[in-house]
Amino acid sequence: MNPHAQPNTNFDRIFTQCRRIAVVGLSPNPARPSHYVSRYLQLQGYQLIPVNPGHRLLLGEVSYPELSAIPEALDWVLCFRRSEEMPALASVAIAKQARCFWMQVGIQHDTARSSCEQAGVWVVENRCAMVEHQRWQAGR
């Protein structure tokens, strides 16, 4: 799928209403997209909740071993994992009553998208949250 062909009119709602972001697959390596995209969002005022079983603290925030281990409510689940992991992550996002399920560039899954849409969760796939946020800000 061409990332620019996917219509999404929810960016205004996502970027204004979804302030708490669970980042699944956040890396401690500053060269990795999961790190610099997350850091960018953090600098924009979003609250990050890292999900990485190998680290206790990432970007100054407590990291959880898995999405289901996060005790508080989530607004947005931002995924930096392989496409085949998306259905399970989408199920947890739905159970946690997340309002947005975002699959980064190169990640998409029909079943995950369909499950989220049926549950009323906004879905974005194969797009970069940092790039879309910058475009959104420029258009405001």
From TrEMBL:
Domain CoA-binding: 15-107
SUPFAM superfamilies: NAD(P)-binding Rossmann-fold domains
InterPro entries registered for this protein in UniProt: CoA-bd, NAD(P)-bd_dom_sf
Domain of life: Bacteria
Protein name: CoA-binding protein
Upper lineage: Bacteria, Pseudomonadati, Pseudomonadota, Betaproteobacteria, Burkholderiales
